[in-house]
Amino acid sequence: MLQETRIVLRNVGLIDPVSIDDYRTRGGYEGLRKALSMTPDQVIKEIETSALRGRGGAGFPTGKKLRISNGVEADQKYIICNADEGEPGTNKDRVILSNDPNTVLEGMAIAAYAAGATKGFVYLRYEYPYIFPILEEAIENATKAGCLGKNIFGSGFDFEVDVVSGGGAYVCGEETALIASISGKRGEPQFKPPYPGVSGLYGKPTVVNNVETLSNLPSILEMGGERFKQIGVPNCTGTKVFTVCGNAERNGVVEYPMGTNLKDIFVAHGGVKNGRDLRGFMLGGQSGNLINPDQMDMNMDIESCREAGCVLGTGTVMVIDDYNEILDIVENIMTFFIHESCGKCTPCREGNIRMHELVHGINAGHGKLEDLDLLEELADTMRLASLCALGQNSSYPVTSSIHNFRPDYIRAIERGQRV
Amino acid sequence: MSTTQTKWEVTPEMKQEILKEAKRYHVEPHKLMRILLNIQRIADNSFPREVAVIVSAETGLTEADLYSYITYYAMFSPERRGKYVVRMCESAPCHVRGAQAVMESISRTLGIQPGETSEDGMFTLEYCQCLGLCEYAPAILINGKVYKDLTPGRAATLMENYINGEVE
Amino acid sequence: MMINLTIDGLPIQVEEGTTVLQAAEKLGISIPTLCHHPDQAVKASCRICLVECEGLSALIPSCAYPVFEGMSVKTHSSKVYNTRRHVLELILSRHAQDCLHCKRSGSCELQSISQEMHFVDSPRYPYRARSTEMDDFSSPSIARSAGKCIACGRCEYVCNEIQQVHAISKVNRGFEVNFVPAYGRPLGESVCVNCGQCTQACPTGALTIKDDTRQFWNNVGGDKLMVAQVAPSVRINLAEALGEAPGTLSTGRLVTAMRRLGFDMVFDSDFTADLTIMEEGTELLGRLQNGGALPMITSCSPGWIKFCETYYPEFIPNLSTCKSPQGMFGALIKTYYAEKLDKKPQDIMSVAIMPCTAKKYEAKRPELGRDGYQDVDLVLTVVELGRMIRSAGINFADLPEEEFDAPFGLGSGAGAIFGVTGGVMEAALRTVYEVVTGETLENIEFDAVRGFEGVKEATIQVGDLPVKVAVAHGLGNARKVMDAVRDGKAEYHFIEIMACPGGCIGGGGNVIKNWKRMQPRYEAIYREDRRLPLRKSHENQAVQNLYKEFLGEPNGHKSHELLHTTYTDRSRLLR
């Protein structure tokens, strides 16, 4: 029976979220204390040893990200916690922030020390308004106890955190869009280079990390990078907080080692709700893949997913029962991207609505076989030409469903042609 | 159904509160989003031109910039909205768990379609994107309060409670 | 530091920080672009300029991507071509389909790229251009066809970053993105000052100059006397509108063409530019001597006037009360000239040929008329005149040269340089200096106020007084000067402000330009100054005759009645 390995979620449900004493009783801020006794370079080495990769979907090595910013000379650097969790089917950051905000704050402080930042922002999506007071109170209590703020633990290291708000834009989860949003502008992604690690918020080196990524840092410092590396699989270490949702018998936010098999997760969550049949899964988030039951034997880590033609993404495991139709879901997903596209670049602004148009046409019974070729071609163009990951990846649900549920499309096309 | 009939105005009290918030911008420009969202709340859940010109005069941000900003972010509305903004998630994890039926129930109970505001100015019904409550789908957000694990029946009851003033 | 890279197999070495687009240009390879503009910040949003770079899986925007050592770029591989084509297809399927009767046909950047890409198929997507219901023709100067907007953002950039008028901004998100005034205000009711720089920036027919040529065609050859005045910079810019090189002077041919079109009288606004100097110079001296409102600020740029009325209404008393040369001419034509010809003002159609879109707005100002008629009935821009000449089948290249009509045909070089930034200031200085000191200027060319620097300052010794002047062009620079004056950080006696970058030669009514194209225009206008026998406004005998015969003296009663005006506080537009 699949057991959780709770590292990120180690305190969830077991402490008062805003209580600094509760957090410290369970070893909180010892990771930071240890980090402060090392040099920033040593801290980065520890994180590099752990081989931790970003948990926001891109999987960029965290140590490398910190090293880049560490290496830039600047009078001010920033660390930003990306709490703009907007990927449908992803609840992990909400769970972490509302139940154990200090693990995020401690992670931010460790990352800030490593990169050379003294100011941090938590960019919290406005759809989580109830988390504002939790975060702010936690910051206040931690600062009062000397775990954040000026001269932490007498080390001479200052680190201040502020909570800023999102306004309802999924694309602000993209780091350059997020930075634009904090600067008081429309949260539109910017072309890279320059990369935020070199020139980000207000032109200063800025490290942007996901909530879950940061939440791992206290444990990494505490147990050491070597021990952390033993968890999960070699090129994708540690755990992953999955969001099991959709038509599963037991939905929930759970933490398993990287590389855990999807079938095991599915069974551990009771299969399909109400004993219905399994239609398939949406994996990784909405810019993820739709897979059919035959593909369930898949290890959930970044590389194994990629080899299977999928993305691990944010760790979404959305179960789809046979009451739902795949083409309906694809239409629904493309509607999401139409709403969320920032509108700046041509392929995404126009491509999402055209994809929806074509799929809707097929679903409504006036599709042609050539539409499938056009969809593939459009997906290629969007992948090659879009300015940011939203446009580059929004076509995955369409292309994956054409590959993995082709009979559904053919049936719809033939149904239309029969009329 | 249409939006509120009476001409809405920024009252002197509202203006004082708006200015108090707007002044924060000079000290904490990175908090612009929260400031504007607070101002929207003060202004009965919307950000019409009457409010924008007050904010513009105080902050130095142009009316054009403010409008550009608020029409980008889904949480803002340049048009008048009701006292309660009911946001129903339409993303896939809620969709596969019957969000459509829940929306229809809410729509029936309130007597308005998504995108509309009730004539008495009490409710605005909107679709929104993922609220991050997928494990408790279908879910809705009403003015910052979360309601989870909805069914058409539970949703109807909930809306009736709001209509009868039995909820804060 | 120098970087070595190859583009399409060709090696090149460039400075660090150069973009792939710039490097390719050095090799003579021009990569197509749409949202890119040489005078604006990089946007990288249209995705037309994408190229392939070895080692990178996605295509990169050549306008934005900086070169790196050992980079290997392909600007037209199969992947690039097909992707670019598809991006174009997406744009075209969202674009209005009326090339045949679009104002921009023949000069549209989107059309050019389609032709270059040999895009002769119908897009595979249903047309979804913005509805014509979203069109905005409320402004007298600028027309917007929403269905032709490709969301490049060049208009918004010029209005907000360069001109800093903030009339329009990018609104909504995703597919609904549009570039309009806030809160649904029509352009004609917004803070828009009609400078037309947005029409200069727009690559397609989305933003164009309002075409008023119909009014000409409906009236020419009829009962009204068609009287035209031609602004100084038109003689520099008209040939460009007819396909000739920028900065080609065509004064003589211009007059011929206008006569052949059917104008009864063709006058030179240079004349009233000299008249303006007489009035404004006198006004300045008056203020200097009698403690009037200082700094005095020029008033010939209607874009600047509306900008001042809206954003700096407290400086309205500082504006010169002089009308613009167009305004003065209109008044003279409908009073003095009408009287001379024994005609009623309503029987004259007073037409102005201008490089300026804001003049269309100025002509409609209620102060610029009397007794139920306007002094200027119709303003046609350089581009519109070019259109008229072409549609009349007139072969501009081979026309003989003719002269302006008397009595308003004589203009000085000082009047001519009104069309360039610093020109009004220089013209005024040439006269003020000689009138005050009684001496002849050794060097009448004031280099200190010439050139394209945004704000120019100088102190000119005029007799005992060191006269402090400032010159600004482009409204963003106007803000700099006005803010400095408002905050007490700078003190001037006289300020010249022109709304358009470069002055009138860069006005919204000309052929579309960028700074590179401005250089020959700039040189041409100063060449014209040197060519003309008269170079100082106060030496214009025809102007002196007008005073003797009709006006009396500068700033006298009649001058005030006809040649001076009032302004209106428009700051309520901000409330």
How many separate helices of chain C? 19
Average pLDDT of chain A: 96
Indicate the overall shape of chain A: globular
Which outline of chain C best applies?
Answer: globular
CATH top level assignment of the largest domain in chain A: Alpha Beta
Structural class of the secondary structure composition of chain C? Answer: alpha/beta
Largest sheet of chain C: 5 strands, mixed
Strand content of chain C: 5-15%
Rg over CA atoms of chain C? 25 Å
Radius of gyration of chain A: 22 Å
- What is the level-2 CATH architecture name of the largest domain in chain A? 3-Layer(aba) Sandwich
Low-confidence segments of chain C, given as residue ranges, are: none
CATH superfamily of the largest domain in chain A: NADH-ubiquinone oxidoreductase 51kDa subunit
Oligomer: heterotrimer
Alpha carbon gap, first and last residue of chain A? 50 Å
**Percent in helix of chain A:** 40-55%
For the record, the CATH architecture of the largest domain in chain C stands as 3-Layer(aba) Sandwich
CATH superfamily of the largest domain in chain C, by name, is Fe-only Hydrogenase (Larger Subunit), Chain L, domain 3
Largest interface: A-B, 55 and 36 residues
Description:
The complex is a heterotrimer of chains A (419), B (168) and C (575). With 419 residues, chain A is an alpha/beta fold. Helices cover 44% and strands 14% of the residues of chain A. Chain A has helices at residues 20-25, 30-36, 40-50, 62-70, 92-99, 101-115, 131-144, 175-182, 211-223, 225-229, 262-268, 302-307, 326-340, 346-363, 369-385, 389-393, 396-404, 406-418; strands spanning 78-83, 119-124, 160-165, 206-210, 232-233, 236-237, 239-246, 252-257, 260-261, 278-283, 289-291, 299-300, 316-321. In chain A, the strands form four sheets. A five-stranded mixed sheet of chain A has the order 8-7-13-10-11. Chain A has a four-stranded parallel sheet with strand order 3-2-1-4, with helices on both faces. A two-stranded antiparallel sheet of chain A has the order 5-6. In chain A, strand 5 (232-233) and strand 6 (236-237) form a beta hairpin. The termini of chain A are far apart. The longest helix of chain B has 16 residues, at 12-27. Chain B has helices at 12-27, 32-42, 49-59, 63-70, 92-95, 99-110, 152-163; strands at residues 84-89, 123-128, 140-142, 145-147. In chain B, helix 1 (12-27) crosses helix 3 (49-59) and helix 6 runs parallel beside helix 7 (152-163). Chain B has a four-stranded mixed sheet, with helices on one face. Chain C has 575 residues and is an alpha/beta fold. Chain C starts with a strand and ends in a 12-residue tail after the last helix. In chain C, 54% of the residues are buried. Chains in contact: A-B, A-C, B-C. Chains A and B meet through strand 3, strand 7, strand 13 and helix 13 of A and helix 2 and helix 5 of B.
